Amino acid sequence: MAKKTVQKKKAPSKGSRFLEFIKKERTRFLLGVCLAFIGAYILLGQVSFFVTGAADQSKVVNRYFFDLISHKQQIANWTGVAGAFVAEKFINQWFGIFSLLIPVYFILMGLKLMRVINISAIRTFLLLAFAMIWGSITSAFTLSRIFPDSHIIWGGAHGQYIEQTLEAALGIPGVLMIIVLLLIIFLIITKKASMEFFRGLFRNPLKNNSAQDIDPELENFYDEEIEEEEPAKEKKSWFSFFKRKKEDKAIEEEANKDILEEDTEILPIENTKPKKTSTTVKVDQDFEIVVPKDEEFIQPVRNADSQPPKPAEPILPALDGETDILPEGEEMEDYDPTKDLSNFHFPSTELLKVYDTTGKGVDMDEQNANKSKIITTLQNYGIEITSIKATVGPTITLYEIVPKAGVRISKIRNLEDDIALSLSALGIRIIAPMPGKGTIGIEVPNKDAQIVSMQSVIASRRFQECTYDLPVALGKTITNEIFMFDLCKMPHLLVAGATGQGKSVGLNAIITSLLYKKHPAEMKMVLVDPKMVEFNIYSTIEKHYLAKLPDAEKAIITDVTKVTQTLNSLTKEMDDRYELLMNAGVRNIKEYNEKFRKRRLNPLKGHRFLPYLVIIIDEFGDLIMTAGKEIEMPIARIAQKARAVGMHMVIATQRPTTNIITGTIKANFPARMAFRVTSQIDSRTILDMSGANQLIGRGDLLFSQGSDLVRIQCAFVDTPEVEGIAQYIGNQQGYSHAFELPEYVGEGGDDKIGNIDLNDRDPLFDEAARLIVVHQQGSTSLIQRKFSIGYNRAGRLMDQLEAAGIVGPTQGSKARDVLIADEYSLEQKLNAFN
Q1: Helix, strand, or coil here: 699?
Q2: How does 79-94 read in b/e, with b if 16+ C-beta sit within 10 Å?
Q3: How confident is the model at residue 19 (pLDDT cuts 50, 70, 90)?
Q4: Fewest beta carbons less than 10 Å away: which of 281, 529, 659, 740?
Q5: What is the pTM of this model?
Q6: Is residue 681 classed as helix, strand or coil in its secondary structure?
Q7: Cβ atoms of residues 735 and 340 within 8 Å
Q8: In angstroms, rounded to a whole number, what is the distance separating the alpha carbons of residues 96 and 99?
Q9: Cβ–Cβ < 8 Å for 473, 706
Q10: Angstrom distance (rounded) from CA 94 to CA 153
């Protein structure tokens, strides 16, 4: 057998041994202890200098350190010769009393090496250095005049020299202004919130002046480089050590509490999933009444922040392609799309009305009477039951009966009208059999219905702690449970109902749910309102949540021609998003945005953060009657393939007939929400089964996702509540304009270019041409921004540039190609025109 050769490991070099020694935890801790003690020693010597410095000054000045030791001078400083020598150097010859920050920095770095605190060494050094330089100049300017005969040079030699130079050059007022200017710069760099304070100083006397836009580059710089104020991220300051200590102590106390509870055989309450509790009242052996209790909800905290904030200045979103470029080797933190509106506050639940339902309990007489009438009616037709159970909801009571063996279910189903007649009910619904149960359900309306408020739904723990991408809370089921669904998983919703049955309130409930959970950077809405009055209430949140065409005056779309153009623009947006997903190598918007957050996609290549787009169309039947196929085709395209790119539709109509809700639309809208309709045919059109014609109205609805039907009492949100929510959001800082959809040019739109008369050019034609050639970017929005003109004029300029051969034809949402390579060629072309 061959012998195995054993290779000898090379001995590590002395340099690597030293590096390994430095990297050891114990070595770093010892270095930190030494550095902290050195800083404490120097700090004690400096403090003693203020007391004993006058006696030691004549002995220390103009002497070397070893001379002081060899001559054994009598030094009064508490820290001896070394402390007196260092204090004299630091304070009188360097930076004055602000030299105290030098030993403070040593102590902080020592604690950092000991891993007691977690701070940035470079950032702390820059902040303390700035404070020390500014403090030395300020001390020389102020304290030297107040205490001229002191043994302390308050600003040190550094501050005294700079202050005297500035005073000779600018005078005393100039020095004072320089000091204040440096202080303002320091405050703004270290704390972004200080900008609002300084704005407030000027806003009150100049409140009639127009607000100026914020520079997005500075905004992003502060957000990403200086400040970390998001509640989801822990601040990297030395105070976090004490914060962690308190949190660890609280966790330990909670654990001890759980142990005590286990010892006393008391189960702790689970906070992750609230448990549903109910009260069961057994009336007799064969009849019991179940009264579900309300779900646990979070009480709103009343404070000053619950009031609507004051109007703030709009923010200009960063342009596509703008990004922070850091030196190689430095990692950037994850991209946060909410940083442009980092101070955005979600609406408070106090804006929603609370209805008093404490006095409305379960009427036991009513339940017993209904039970007797149901049993009697069934017995009259020869149907015997073994047991009956009632579950009381806010507006409907569900009676579950178990028939005796041999009874046909179809026989009970045919007695629907007879049971309704005996109960004198507005309308009942029989579920035979109930899915997953061996019972037959009879839904009977309550005589005294309770109002399901939007506040009880929004404030519920289930809604507040949900992690859906687009959470929608509709209301409560028969068993008093909060009904929620994720619009992303629907992925589109079809709403139908007769006039006055709660359809508009249902749409407002959907919008309100989204506004309470989604940040403006994460979701945009396209609202189509042919009635012109239904969605007008949301116009105040245009710069936060709404999307529109670039040339549209209003974000709420009411004109049918604009609807067609908007839907076609949305199809272009869909195609553009699919192209971005393809280039990124992902399959859906969630994976794409996650990649973008991790900064694995380059904005210079056209990548951008993609918010969810929710398209809500009211009175779809009216649009079909006026526009027909022009509306149906883009809607069908969006419904078929827009799910993966985060575009979801909610369509409402009061006439669910087959010529309005066609087979193409029904096939791509699996989720249906049906309020009360007038006929069984309409119910079958919307739900593919009957039942919607037996609802009682006023928010009573059936929700279908597939084959199962769920009966829900829609949450009631009134117009004043919606106005308060919209006003609360609208008063906050928003973007400079609504989210712009890509430009859409209809068929035959390019033919108009040849009819443009270049002799009648716009006065800004030459300047616009130079701008386009310099930037090599044929964008209408670029002309609009640089010259502060409207979209229509910028569009006409772009058409003239195309007719002149300077830019190419439109390419959808992409920028046009620039056909002129340099400014010299452009000037020759312009001279030929002139």
Answers
A1: coil
A2: bebbbbbbbbebbbeb
A3: low
A4: 659
A5: 0.57
A6: helix
A7: yes
A8: 6
A9: no
A10: 9
